[in-house]
Each structure stands twice: as structure tokens, then as C-alpha cells.
Specification:
heterotrimer; A alpha+beta; B alpha+beta; C alpha/beta; B: alpha+beta; D-Amino Acid Oxidase, Chain A, domain 2; Arc Repressor Mutant, subunit A; nine-stranded mixed beta sheet; eight-stranded mixed beta sheet; 12 helices; 22 strands; 30% helix; globular; C: alpha/beta; FAD/NAD(P)-binding domain; Immunoglobulin-like; 3 domains; seven-stranded mixed beta sheet; five-stranded parallel beta sheet
């Protein structure tokens, strides 16, 4: 099976062609100009991850919501599951940057942390 | 609720007439179908005070135009409305055009327009340095000017309220019944009873008249499209510039506005009778404005356009081109003020007086009030104050120190004043028309959400009930969390 | 009248970096004037990550990036006035500002740094015909509603313009439960970063329609839909390609304009291409002692570059303040830097002959170039030449010019161009 990707490692945006084996393992990467492109293609085909940012409802703050992010990238497929958990969370002010808002979200081993003060 | 008089429509005519009638000792209400004053033709027109050489000699239009032009300065002063007596030029490009100027001069002279003059190419270029080299002369009319039309309507309404008039917004009239010498007006906010009705419903005046069985006229919405340019362009034009009317039509005008922007337009396209809400701009219309402008001031482009918009003029179908301002033949307690297209804005002060006379003849039972407050105090305009005045004001109320609209320099205090005023702003556009917040070059990009917040706080409604201009024009939906 | 060595107008990333650098260079009395309630500028509402990769070597969100500078400012004795709007710059470098505690403030400053940032191009400047319904707003306005006020500006969305803010908002709105129908881009290529196209659109299955624009808005009260059409090579709509798309919201991400109203009021010369001031290598404008940096000078793609540029301005202002009696600035001759073939603009536009170090010239290209050469010359001499695999208008480029080369230049202009 073949997969076409655009490398996001740098502004060049190389078109990558990835040959995948039967169980999803990467057989070959072509189209990349540098090793970073190969690495990107391998990661993207085996375990694509993304940073997730959103807001969480705050009680008693000057602002109604506080911005949050994942402490590390999470599996791409879990973004909407994580959003459901984030949407149901409510925290009380005051909040500082770096405060853990949700621990180990959706069993990803990643925390949701505040990225601003409220 | 029972009133002596109901005025239908809160455009500039409705508002000025309501103010005029508030001089009398009677129960008065003005009904408006929209969420604010001046939401129809009065908010989207050329904002011109015409000298009065266009209308046919002997017409009501000619009489009220010339009177209105001479009254405008007085009314704008009394009501604290931006007005500039900058004069107008009808620009000629050909020998034929020069002949037309003579005709206009003569018509104007007969209409009583004072101090007109036909000027030479050199004089024209001195007055308008950026004018096309093709321009060979012009008709100069010093009594013409520019006014802020919606501010005139808002100020007149506020002044009428000061004198006891009531204003009901979101109260469109959908049915009228007349029995026992009383009109029963079915409105979106309930039934209103009134002994007399003044129909100032603009493009809908024919529909209102029909409700009492008066089908003597029909109104065609005539669309005009405009561009409004940044104040950076104001050096390009100093007077109201009209294109000489020709076989090709009247052409567009270019003018500074009362606030120092440049306005250009309008086109003239007749719509269907049932398209009275269609104020969409069109590619064809906007292109026409752009190309016509090039003929007048070649260097003027829309590169610094702040916005484009369209308005509808209430044009009477058929051969009659005059204003209809008279008691209805179907019911003599019902006065039509209809077909008030250009120069309706100019004429508005004179129309108000004229309707006042009709009313006093029709209903002599009402006496003049002992105390009529003729002056509407000027709203605070922070950036027009001296340094000392401004400091003093901020010391008294710190909200005049907090600038919300960066482009126009409008403070939180001014926005709150606009909301708290009699018949104050209830939506974002209402704040914009009263204060100019959001009227600048960023078009509310920065201050829009702040204005929504202030409206939400001052009107005590959640942010998602704040609208752009009433009804379903809300700005935001549900909370994210 | 208050007296300061340096007044910085704007407390976003540019203003803070410039003020901190000036302090580091020994400037004693500094004030930052910020119109919003807090320092941080537009970063406060940019809650996505991707900031700081160059400057801090880590991936931060906007508020986090801003906070690193806010903390540093708080540790110094730099005065900060928030909720304070500068309304004029008078002759003699007097800054006039207003707020609700001081009323009108007059600040006499030896040097001024302009760091007011930029604003989004609004609908009026676009000429989209149609209705005046609500639901048409810039992507940044929508970003503020969602990220700061906590309200959804719409449910069914079309985005016009594939600039980064538009792409970021496509993802934000989708994650918050809205349906983003499509992103339309007038040009045949996107102005946004590849990473954003992949992660904000492709990941979520949002189509990017290139050479496509909105030609009409529908709906009398709230927006009910838009008509889109493909455009030809002259960016004119192609008849027959019109398509109605139902939506309640149209977000505009169609360019940024430096906020130079004050700059113009101060009589400073503006570059018609960048829409920012014309500056020298220390970002000094045509008015001695007035510097400009960040998005008010030229629109940047990355905040990291804003920080770098602002540090140059901060250092320049410090040098100006310290050597004011020696009148360093305009006494010497200037070398002009000019953009040619394939280069849209350069910053700085001038280099003082008396400059004291290497100078980096920043520029943007006019079009997408592949395997093209960037060439910098002065007269017959080639100062710099480098082949690049790809050049795009969306990516700011820079070339270093060595001090020794500058010293050798006599009267000629420095020319930056692209050779295909």
C-alpha cells in the first residue's frame, strides 16, 4: 500500500511517497530531501501525534475560560475523545501557567496544563 | 395604549415630523419596525444637502428642497448634528453639458436657489485640484452641503422624546382598522390606538396606505450602491461633485462626508415591488461606481475603501415625480408622507414644518405646548475636546479615558452614553451610528467584541443575545464551555 | 509632563523585547504604553502552540511565549501602563496618551519605539458584494470570541483566505464543534505554513480550494450562505463556476496591515510596499530618535523573528540615547537597500555608512520560486549569492551583509534580487 504525505518539517514541504507493508510497517520513503523527511514519514504512518490546545471553563475568574495544551503530543486519533473530557472539565480560579488541569487524559499518559493565568 | 397621533416609520422624516408634532400638547408615538431609528433609506443615502436646482419649477419637491437647504444649518445646530455647508459643483465635460448647466441654473433660479454661479475650468481646478482634465466648467451652488442623516434622525427622535413623545421600536405595523374615529394599528408589539396617523414608512409607505384602503400610489425600491473611503482620501475632494446629467443618466456623485470620509455613488436600479429588503451590493453596481468615479477624479480609487453598501430610495411608480405629502383621500385623518426620494433628506426639516401645518389645520383642537425644548444637547465627543476639558471629564468619569475604538478614538464613556440615551443604541450598529465606534478603517475588527461586551453589560443581556442590528442578526452563538 | 529615556508604544512581543533589550543595554528610565488590559498583545488569544521554536528552542503557546517576556519585564523597573492608548506624538518626541486613571498623559522621551503591531484586513477592503448580514468577521475577531470570551461565533463556517490565522481558526472551530465547510484561497497557493495546512485542514478533512474566492454573501439578518467561484490567472471569477455554500459565518483571513496611524501622524515616511516605516539598520525611522519594530514595521510570519527585530530596535534606541549629544544618526551618509526582480521589499531600506556591525537584510519574494538564487550586489560586486530550493511569498527570507563589505561601498545601492 502507498501513502502520499507532505512533509511539515520545514517550509520546503516535500511531497513524500511512503510504501507500507501489510501490517502497516514502513518499507520505503521517497521524495524527501533530508533525513528529517524520512523520520516524519515514518512517524506519521506508524504513530501520528499532535499537540492539542483548547480552553477549559473557569469559575470565579476574570475570564470565563483558561487556555490549555497537552503537556506532550497525543495520538492524532484521540483528539476528539480528549476534547470531550476537556469540555466537561471546570476549574476554579486562580490558575497559574503550568498548572495541571487534567491528569493523564484518556489514558494517553499526557496531562492537560494551563497556558495562561486567570 | 391610546394616542392622539401615531407616526409610522422612524426615518429622518418620521423623526423630524415627530419632533415637530411634539411641540403640540398631545399624546404622540412613533412606531418603527426595526431595532433602531433610521434603519431604512435614512441610513444609506448620499447624505447631501441639495441646493435645489434639480426639482421641477413649481413642484412641492422644489419648494421643500430650497426651504430645507436653508433650514438645515439651524436644525443641525439645535439638534447638535454634524453638518458642513461645503457647496456643490455640477461638473460639465462637453459643450452639451455646459448647455445643461444653463438649464440647471435657470431652474435653480426659478426655484429660489441663492448665489449660484457657472464657473470656468480654471476656477473649477482651483476648487478641485484633482478633478479630471476633461472637466471644462461647473455649476457652483454654495448653499449645498453634507449632513449625517442617521444622526439627524436620532437627534430629532431624542429631542421629541425630551418633549414627551414615545418611541416604540420592533413595532412594525401589519394591519390597520378604523372604527369609531379611531385607528387600531396591529403591530409586532401589540395594538396601538391613535386618532391620527402619519405614514412615513419609506419604501413601505404604499403598503401602509393600502391598509386603510388607499391604493393611490405604489413605491418602487430604487437601489443605489456606494463606496465609503478612508479619511486618508479626504484631500481628493472638497465639495459635493455631481456629474452633469445627460442622456446617459444622472451619473454618480463624489463628496466628502460630514465626518471627513469620502463617499461615492449611487447607482440607480429599480427593483421589484417585493424586493424592499434587498440592500445587497452587486458586482455590476460596485464596478459602475468605480468606473464612473474615474471619469471625475481619475486618481481616486477604492484601494482605501472602508466599506461598500446599498440603500433603497422610495420612488413613486408612474409619471408623478413629486413628493406625496397630503391627507389621504381614503381617510382624512391619515396623512401620507410618501415618495420621499432625493432630495428628501434636504427637505426633511421643511417636510416636518409642512406636515405640522397640515396637522394643525386637520386637528385644530391641539394647542401649542407652553414649554417646548428645542435644543438637543450635543453628545460628548472626547476627541473634539480641548486638553483641559478632556482631563476634567476623565477626572469626573474615568470611562472617558478608556478608548474602545482605536480608529476613531471613541471611549467607553461615549459608548455607554449612546446606550443610555433616550431611545439609545440596542445593537452594535446602533452604537456605531451614534458614536462612530467601528466606523473606522478596521471596521470593528478590534472594538467589535468590546462593543458586544459593553452592550451585554449595560443592557444586562448575555453576549449571545447582542445583535448587529436586531432580530436574528446575532453576533455569537452558544458558549464554548 | 513625565520624562523618560525611552517610551515604547505597544506591550506585545515587539514592545516587550525592545524594552528589555534597551534595559540590557543600559537605558535607565523606560515606559511601556499598552492599550489592552494586559501585556502580551495578540499572543494572548493565540492559544495554539508553535511559538518559540527558533527563539526558545521549544514549542510554546502564544500566552506562554508572551508570559516569558512579561515575567522579565516585571522583574525590571520598567514602568508599564496598560489600558493606555497613545493618541499623538508631538514634535520633540512627546507622546500623548490617555487612560482612565491619569486622564491625559504627556511623556517626553529621548527615544520612542513604535511597536503597535498590525490589524486584519476587513471586509470593506475586499469588495465582496452581497448583504450586510451579521456573521462576517475577521479570523482574529473570531479567535478572540472563542479563546478569550468563550463564545462560538458560528456553527457552519466558510473561511476566505488561507493565511495562518485562517488555518488555525479552521482547526479551533472544528475542535469546538463547528463544521468548517472549506477554506477558499484566491491565489493558486496558500499563504500559510505547510504544517498548518496538514495539521489544521488535512487532519480534519477540511477542503482547501485554491484559485477560489467568495463573490457574494447571502442573508438579510444573519449570514445564510456565500457564493464561491473559481478565479482565472488574473484573479477574476470564471463565469459558470459559481457555487452556493450554506453557512452562518464567513471568516476572513486575507492579510494583515501594520497599524501606522500614529506613525503617519508623526510625519514619518512610510514604505508603500511594507506599509511600515522606512528604517535604517537599527530600525530608526525618518524621524531621529523614533524606532519601529515588529508587525508595525513589516508583517512577520513568526513571533520569534519579531523578537529578534525588536531587540535590534531596542539596542538601536539605547545607542541613540547614549550618544545623543554626539548625534550619531543622520549626520553620516546612507546606503540605500533596494528590492529588484522577484523581491517585493527589503527591511531595512537604509544602512548608515557609519554602521558598526554586520547587517541582516530581511525580505519577501513576489512569487513562488524553485531552485532560484538570491543575489545581493552593490555596483558590480556580488555581496551574497545563495541557491534556494524554494522561495515563497509567505516565508520571510534574510541575507547577512558583512561590515567589511558595507565599508567598501561608495555611493552604490545594495540590490537584492532573485535569479531564476
Amino acid at each position: 500500500m502507498k501513502r502520499e504525505l507532505v512533509c511539515v518539517s520545514c517550509p520546503l514541504g516535500c511531497p513524500l511517497s511512503v510504501e507500507l507493508g501489510e501490517n502497516g510497517d514502513v518499507l520505503s520513503v521517497t521524495g524527501n530531501t533530508c533525513p528529517r523527511g524520512k523520520k516524519y514519514a515514518e512517524d506519521e504512518c506508524t504513530n501520528p501525534v499532535r499537540m492539542l490546545t483548547s480552553t477549559v471553563k473557569v469559575n470565579g475568574g476574570k475570564l470565563p475560560v483558561v487556555p490549555v495544551k497537552t503537556s506532550a503530543p497525543i495520538p492524532k486519533g484521540k483528539m476528539f475523545d480528549c476534547m470531550k473530557v476537556i469540555n466537561n472539565e471546570v476549574v476554579d480560579a486562580p490558575i497559574k501557567i503550568g498548572d495541571v488541569i487534567i491528569c493523564n487524559i484518556c489514558d494517553t499518559g499526557v496531562d492537560i496544563i494551563a497556558t495562561n493565568e486567570v | 395604549m391610546q394616542y392622539d397621533v401615531a407616526v409610522i416609520g422612524a426615518g429622518v422624516c418620521g423623526a423630524m415630523i415627530t419632533r415637530e408634532l411634539s411641540k403640540l400638547d398631545l399624546n404622540l408615538v412613533m412606531l418603527e419596525k426595526c431595532n433602531d431609528i433610521a434603519m431604512g433609506t435614512s441610513k444609506a443615502n448620499s447624505a447631501i444637502v441639495h441646493a435645489g436646482f434639480d426639482a421641477e419649477n413649481g413642484s412641492l419637491k422644489a419648494k421643500l428642497n430650497v426651504q430645507g437647504a436653508s433650514l438645515m444649518a439651524y436644525y443641525c445646530n439645535k439638534l447638535s448634528v454634524p453638518y458642513k455647508n461645503i457647496g456643490s459643483l455640477v461638473v460639465a465635460y462637453s459643450w452639451d453639458d455646459m448647455q445643461t448647466l444653463e438649464t440647471l441654473f435657470e431652474r435653480g433660479f426659478n426655484n429660489g436657489v441663492p448665489n449660484m454661479e457657472i464657473i470656468s475650468q480654471e476656477q473649477l481646478r482651483e476648487m478641485e485640484p484633482y478633478i479630471s482634465e476633461e472637466a471644462i466648467g461647473a455649476l457652483w451652488a454654495p448653499t449645498a452641503g453634507v449632513v449625517s442623516p442617521y444622526e439627524l434622525a436620532i437627534a430629532a427622535t431624542e429631542n421629541a422624546i425630551m418633549n414627551g413623545a414615545r418611541v416604540k421600536r420592533n413595532s412594525g405595523v401589519f394591519d390597520i382598522e378604523y372604527k369609531n374615529d379611531m385607528f387600531f394599528l396591529s403591530t409586532a408589539s401589540g395594538v396601538i390606538k391613535a386618532k391620527y396617523v402619519i405614514n412615513c414608512a419609506g419604501v413601505f409607505a404604499d403598503q401602509i396606505a393600502k391598509m386603510i384602503g388607499d391604493e393611490s400610489f405604489k413605491i418602487i425600491p430604487r437601489k443605489g450602491e456606494y463606496y465609503l473611503l478612508d479619511k486618508t482620501e479626504k484631500k481628493m475632494v472638497n465639495h459635493v461633485l455631481f456629474h452633469c446629467p445627460s442622456a446617459m443618466g444622472k451619473g454618480i456623485l463624489i463628496t466628502p462626508t460630514a465626518h471627513g470620509n469620502v463617499l461615492m455613488g449611487p447607482t440607480a436600479i429599480d427593483l421589484d415591488f417585493d424586493s424592499k429588503l434587498d440592500v445587497d451590493t452587486t458586482i455590476e453596481g460596485l464596478d459602475k461606481v468605480k468606473s464612473d468615479v474615474r471619469n471625475v477624479i481619475p486618481q481616486l480609487t477604492t484601494r482605501n475603501a472602508i466599506t461598500s453598501f446599498a440603500g433603497l430610495r422610495a420612488h413613486i411608480a408612474g409619471d408623478n415625480s413629486d413628493f406625496i405629502i397630503a391627507q389621504s383621500k381614503a381617510n382624512e385623518r391619515f396623512v401620507n408622507v410618501a415618495g420621499i426620494e432625493s432630495p428628501g433628506l434636504t427637505a426633511a426639516p421643511a417636510i416636518a414644518r409642512y406636515v405640522g401645518e397640515i396637522f394643525r389645520k386637520m386637528a385644530p383642537e391641539y394647542q401649542k405646548k407652553e414649554q417646548f425644548i428645542s435644543r438637543r444637547p450635543a453628545p460628548i465627543r472626547v476627541n473634539e475636546l480641548s486638553k483641559e476639558e478632556r482631563e476634567e471629564l476623565i477626572k469626573k468619569d474615568s470611562r472617558y479615558g478608556k478608548i474602545i475604538c482605536r480608529c476613531e478614538g471613541i471611549t467607553e464613556g461615549e459608548i455607554i452614553d449612546a446606550i443610555k440615551a433616550p431611545c439609545g443604541a440596542r445593537d452594535v450598529d446602533g452604537v456605531k451610528r451614534r458614536t462612530r465606534a467601528g466606523m473606522g478603517r478596521c471596521q470593528g475588527g478590534f472594538c467589535g467584541s468590546k462593543v458586544v461586551e459593553i452592550l451585554s453589560r449595560e443592557l444586562d443581556i448575555p453576549m449571545n443575545q447582542v445583535t448587529k442590528f436586531g432580530n436574528r442578526s446575532k453576533i455569537v452563538f452558544n458558549k464554548t464551555k | 509632563m513625565l520624562k523618560y529615556d525611552l517610551a515604547v508604544i505597544g506591550g506585545g512581543p515587539a514592545g516587550m523585547a525592545a524594552a528589555l533589550k534597551a534595559r540590557e543595554c543600559g537605558v535607565a528610565k523606560i515606559i511601556i504604553l499598552e492599550r489592552a488590559e494586559t501585556l502580551g498583545g495578540i499572543l494572548e488569544q493565540c492559544i495554539h502552540t508553535g511559538f518559540g521554536l527558533h527563539y526558545f528552542g521549544e514549542e510554546l503557546s502564544g500566552p506562554e511565549y508572551a508570559h516569558r517576556f512579561i515575567e522579565q519585564v516585571e522583574k525590571t523597573d520598567i514602568d508599564v501602563k496598560v489600558d493606555t492608548m497613545v493618541i499623538d506624538i508631538l514634535p520633540g518626541n512627546v507622546v500623548v496618551a490617555t487612560n482612565n486613571t491619569d486622564g491625559l498623559l504627556e511623556i517626553n522621551a529621548t527615544a520612542i519605539i513604535l511597536a503597535m503591531g498590525c490589524r486584519e484586513r476587513p471586509r470593506g477592503a475586499l469588495d465582496i458584494p452581497g448583504s450586510r448580514a451579521s456573521g462576517i468577521m475577521t479570523a482574529g475577531t473570531a479567535q478572540k470570541y472563542v479563546n478569550i470570551d468563550g463564545y462560538m461565533p458560528g456553527k457552519k463556517i466558510v473561511i476566505l483566505g488561507s493565511g495562518d490565522i485562517g488555518l488555525i481558526m479552521a482547526r479551533r472551530m472544528t475542535l469546538e464543534g463547528a463544521k468548517v465547510e472549506m477554506v477558499c484561497e484566491l491565489m493558486p497557493y496558500s499563504g500559510g505554513l505547510t504544517r498548518n495546512i496538514v495539521q489544521c485542514l488535512d487532519d480534519l478533512g477540511i477542503p482547501l480550494k485554491l484559485s477560489c474566492t467568495v463573490i457574494k454573501t447571502h442573508g438579510i439578518e444573519r449570514l445564510e450562505g456565500v457564493t464561491i467561484a473559481n478565479v482565472d490567472e488574473h484573479r477574476k471569477p470564471i463565469p459558470g463556476t459559481e457555487q452556493f455554500v450554506e453557512c452562518d459565518t464567513l471568516l476572513l483571513s486575507v492579510g494583515l496591515i501594520p497599524e501606522n496611524e500614529l506613525t503617519r501622524m508623526a510625519g514619518i515616511i512610510i514604505d508603500p510596499v511594507t506599509n511600515g516605516a522606512i528604517v535604517d539598520e537599527y530600525r530608526q525611522t525618518s524621524r531621529p530618535g523614533v524606532f519601529a519594530c515588529g508587525n508595525v514595521l513589516q508583517v512577520h510570519d513568526l513571533v520569534d523573528y519579531v523578537t529578534q527585530e525588536s531587540q535590534i530596535a531596542g539596542e538601536g534606541a539605547a545607542k541613540y540615547i547614549q550618544s545623543k549629544s554626539k548625534s550619531r544618526s543622520r549626520s553620516g551618509k546612507c546606503i540605500h537597500v533596494k528590492a529588484q526582480n522577484g523581491v517585493r521589499y527589503v527591511v531595512p531600506q537604509n544602512i548608515n555608512c557609519t554602521t558598526d556591525g554586520d547587517v541582516k537584510i530581511y525580505f519577501r519574494v513576489t512569487d513562488i520560486f524553485k531552485n532560484a538564487k538570491i543575489v545581493v550586489t552593490a555596483g558590480d560586486k556580488v555581496l551574497y549569492s545563495k541557491k534556494k530550493k524554494k522561495l515563497a511569498p509567505g516565508e520571510m527570507e534574510s541575507v547577512p551583509i558583512k561590515l567589511e563589505d558595507i565599508k567598501k561601498i561608495d555611493k552604490q545601492d545594495i540590490i537584492v534580487r532573485v535569479e531564476a
